[in-house]
Amino acid sequence: MFTKKAARIILHSTAFLMMTSFWSSAVFAQKTDIGKLSSGGILKPVQANMDIRQYILNLDVDIANKFIKGSTTVHLQLNNAADTILLDFIQQFTIESIKVDGKAVDFDHKDAKIYIKPTAGAKDHQFTAGNHSVFIAYQGNPPEAVRPPWLGGFTWSKDRSGNDWVSINIQKEGGRMYFPCKDHPSDEPNEGVEMTITVPKGLTVAGPGLLQKITTKQNKTSFFWKTNYTISNYCVVFNIGKYRVFKDSYTTINGNNVPIEYYILEEDSAQAKRVIAAKKRDSKILEKYFGEYPWYKEKIGIAAVPNSGMEHQTMITFDNKFVFTTIGGQDYSDNLFHEYAHEWWANKVTNKDWAHMWIQEGIGTYAEALAMYELGGQEAYNKIIANHKRGIRHKKPLVGGESLSEDETYAGSDIYTKGSFFMHSLRYVLGDDLFLKTLKQLATDPAYTYDNTVTSTDVEQLFSKAAGYSLKPFFDFHLKTTQLIEVSIKETGYQQYQIKPLNYFMDLPFDVTVNGKATRQIIGKDGITVKSETIPMVDAAGYYLKKLVIQ
Fold this sequence. Notes:
Elements: E1 14-18, E2 26-30, H1 45-48, E3 50-62, E4 67-78, E5 85-88, E6 93-100, E7 103-104, E8 106-110, E9 113-117, E10 130-140, E11 153-158, E12 164-169, E13 193-200, E14 204-206, E15 210-217, E16 220-226, E17 239-241, E18 243-251, E19 257-265, H2 272-290, E20 300-305, E21 316-319, E22 325-327, E23 330-332, H3 334-341, E24 350-351, H4 358-390, H5 406-410, H6 417-430, H7 432-444, E25 453-454, H8 456-467, H9 472-480, E26 485-493, E27 496-501, E28 508-514, E29 517-523, E30 528-531, E31 537-538, E32 546-550
Parallel strand pairs: 3-13, 19-20, 20-21, 24-25, 26-32
Antiparallel strand pairs: 1-2, 3-4, 4-10, 5-9, 6-7, 6-10, 8-9, 11-12, 13-16, 14-17, 15-16, 18-19, 22-23, 26-27, 27-30, 28-29, 28-31
Helix pairs in contact: 2-3, 2-4, 3-4, 4-6, 6-7, 7-8
C-alpha cells in the first residue's frame, strides 16, 4: 500500500446490544473507537493457543442503508484445552447468536473482542483441544472509511453514471472491521476463505480466489468466491460495482495458464485492453526476479475502486484515473505495478509481525526500481533509487521492536523508501548475482512463503548464509537505527589520506576513487591509507546512506 501521512478520527456513538451472555443477558455497549484500532500487536496467550484454519463469510449487503447482515464461520484448532475462545470484532455490530460445534454458547462482546465461553454443562467448563467450528450471526452498519485505503472501512460511492460502487480497505484496522477473526498477521487461514456476498441485482461482486457460482433470486444476486491458498485478514475483502469483466490469460514462467480478470466499470471499458497489456508485461518482470506468479491456481485479478489501489490477494485494486507515464516507450503505472508486486511481497511472503513490515513494503518498493531497469535501463533504475534516497526522513528505525501494531510500525516510518534503499545497499555489498539469486530464493522457498511467515531475522540469516559470513551487523545498523555510515577522509601527509569509518560496525566494501580511478576496497575498523593527488572520493555513486567527514 502507498504511504501518506496518517490521520486520526474518533467516532463516538452507542448501540444497544442484546446478548445471551454468561455475564449478562443484555449490555449497553459503546461502539469501538475506530481511530485507535490497529491490527497486530502483542498476541494474547488465549489467541496464541488458536490456529485459524478457515473463514466462511455469508453476508447480505444493503447498500441503500449502508448495512450488512449475515454470518461468519471460523474453523479453528486449539492446541490445548481452553476455557475461552477469543476473536476480534468491533462493537458496531449486533451479535445475534454464537454457536460452537453447533451448540449455543455464552459470550461477551466488549473492547472490540468476543469472549466465547463453554455452556455451563460443558466438561470441565473448557473447549477441548482440537478442531472447532464457531458460527457467529450478526448485523450492523460497518464503519465508513475516512481516507481509504490508509484509514479504512467501507466506502459507499457512486460511479460517474450514478451506479452504486462500494470498496473495502482494512489493512490498518484489520479484518475485525466487518467479520469476526483472529486479527494478527502471524495466523492466516490455512484452508483459505469462502465468501458468499449478496447484493442488489444488476451489481457485481469482485472477490479473492475463484468465483464458484452466481445465483439470482428476485431482486438480489449472490456471488460465491473461494480461495485455495492462505490469505491475510486484510485481503479478505470484496468490491461491488456496475462492473464489466474483461478476461484474458497469462502463461507463467513455469508454463501454467492463469486467467486474467479485470473488473472494470462499464463506463471505462475502453481502457481495459491497455491495463491488461501492462499487467502481462509487469507479470514477466516480476516473475524474472521473484519467481512464478504465486496464485497460478486462481487468477490474476484487478478491480476498479474509488480510492487508491491496494494489494488485495488475486484481486488487487486500481483507481480508474488511468494515469500512465512512459518509460522506454511503454506505459507504466506505479500504482498498478506496486500493488501487483505485493502479490509476492505481502501476500506470498508475509510478515509474522507488523514490526517487520519493511519486508513487504520495502522490497515491494524496490521491485519498482527493478521494473525501471527492465523498461528504461540503468539510468531509469538510478533515478528512482535516488528518489527513494531523497525521500528517507530518518525519524524512526525500520524495525522498532517486536510484537508491534501496524500503526506503531507504519506511521511516520521509512519502510517504503529506506526499505528499498536498503535492498540497493545490500545488492552492492553482495554483488548482483548473489543478491538477486538470494532475493528470488526468499520469494520462492517454501520456508518463507504461503503458510510460513517471516521476520527480519529470517531475511538476515538467509542472506548471511548466501554470503558465507554474518550480515547481522549490517542489518541491525540499517534496520534498527536511524544512523548514517560516517566515513572520515583525513589528509595525513603529502598526497596521502586515511579513509576510516567513524561508527564502525563491520568491514564493508566501498568504491574509492583515487586520481580519477575507482576501485572496490574493503574498509575495516582501522581504515585504509591511499595516495592521491586530490582528495579521494568514497562511494561516489551513493550505494550507502552515509556522511563524509573531510578533515
